[in-house]
Amino acid sequence: MLTDADLDPAPLHGKTVAIIGFGNQGRAQALNLHDSGITVRVGLRPGSDRAAEAAAAGLTVLPPEEAAAGANLVFLLAPDEHLPAIYAAIEPRLAQGAALGFAHGLCIHYGLIVPRADLDVIMVAPKGPGAALRRLYTEGKGMVALAAVAQDATGNAWPLALAYAAALGSGRAGAGVLRSTFEQETVSDLFNEGAVVWGAVPAILEAGFETLVEAGIDPALAYLECVSELKLLADLVEARGIAGMREAISNTAEFRASRGGGRIVDDAVRATMRTMLAELRGNGFAQALSAEAAADYPTLRAERARARASALEAARVRLKG
């Protein structure tokens, strides 16, 4: 892990950074850079409902093509599926030898964007949501980030990437910057999203809740047992690690856990995980994401509607009032 003691902020001194997008990551990164003394432009389409918020924060707001024109570094922080069209629109305005930045490697790794040969192509990927990135920065802390270089046209790509990470606050005590690659960041991130934290964990929570309710357990109690305790688990794992988490719970809980986890995550589940990982070595997911966006997200809309109408959600609303 590289910290501020290892990171030189000089490559960004006197430079102009264009942040394209002002959503989850765009807002946090633009504000952190601005507060670190970096000249920031925010690129938003005309009529964007984010423009007033960005301007109120003291940031210069321009259409994406104008924000990118002449900037030393242009960071694309809109949703992944929109980035190819954004790059096509701004590419004629990018200065010779400028740098193009990403917070996720998907578009470069899967070839959805093929940058001009004269551009440096870097990635700085904070390992958490933008709201947390911003909150930690304002508290004088930082968030761990991955840094990578896909194209080093000028010979200055790595120093620039690390300076950018430092300006986000990722080199501060308690955080750090880890050198990585576009491939490793993309594949590991998508694997986690599908097979572990964002895909499998919610599915297990729902399955456990449904199993208890089917057996006659009150839905509110089933929710407390199967969902609410997840935060306790996450906090313990973050503070102590998995081994320390097991030592912190009661002997009864630890013994029961030892007799349950391996029966759920068995060899068949591990084989499925390996299959899901292998699928990410091709570009099928990137193509499916593009098709989903082109059709106005029918799968995501249906899944959101299903989740909102579920018995688990009803139990949550009942408990939270």
Automatic annotation (TrEMBL):
Q: Which EC number(s) does UniProt give? A: 1.1.1.86
> Which enzyme class?
oxidoreductase
Q: Has UniProt tagged this entry with the keyword Transmembrane helix?
A: no
At which positions is Mg(2+) 1 bound? Answer: D189, E193
Q: Could you name the domain of life of the organism this protein comes from? A: Bacteria
Mind telling me what this protein is named? Ketol-acid reductoisomerase
Q: What is the lineage of its organism?
A: Bacteria, Pseudomonadati, Pseudomonadota, Alphaproteobacteria, Sphingomonadales
InterPro entries per the UniProt record, alphabetical: 6-PGluconate_DH-like_C_sf, KARI, KARI_C, KARI_N, KARI_prok, NAD(P)-bd_dom_sf
Give the organism, scientific name. Answer: Sphingomonas astaxanthinifaciens DSM 22298
Q: Where does Mg(2+) 2 bind?
A: D189, E225, E229
Q: Which reaction equation describes what this protein catalyses?
A: (2R)-2,3-dihydroxy-3-methylbutanoate + NADP(+) = (2S)-2-acetolactate + NADPH + H(+)
Any idea what job this protein has?
Involved in the biosynthesis of branched-chain amino acids (BCAA). Catalyzes an alkyl-migration followed by a ketol-acid reduction of (S)-2-acetolactate (S2AL) to yield (R)-2,3-dihydroxy-isovalerate. In the isomerase reaction, S2AL is rearranged via a Mg-dependent methyl migration to produce 3-hydroxy-3-methyl-2-ketobutyrate (HMKB). In the reductase reaction, this 2-ketoacid undergoes a metal-dependent reduction by NADPH to yield (R)-2,3-dihydroxy-isovalerate.
Arranged from A to Z, the UniProt key words for this protein are: Amino-acid biosynthesis, Branched-chain amino acid biosynthesis, Magnesium, Metal-binding, Oxidoreductase
> Which Pfam families does the record cross-reference, listed alphabetically?
KARI_C, KARI_N
Task: Give the record's family classification.
Answer: Belongs to the ketol-acid reductoisomerase family.
List of residues binding substrate? S250
Annotated TM spans:
none
Q: Which residues form the KARI N-terminal Rossmann domain?
A: 1-180
Q: Which residues form the KARI C-terminal knotted domain?
A: 181-321
Cofactor(s) recorded for this entry are: Mg(2+)
Pathway(s) served: Amino-acid biosynthesis; L-isoleucine biosynthesis; L-isoleucine from 2-oxobutanoate: step 2/4; Amino-acid biosynthesis; L-valine biosynthesis; L-valine from pyruvate: step 2/4
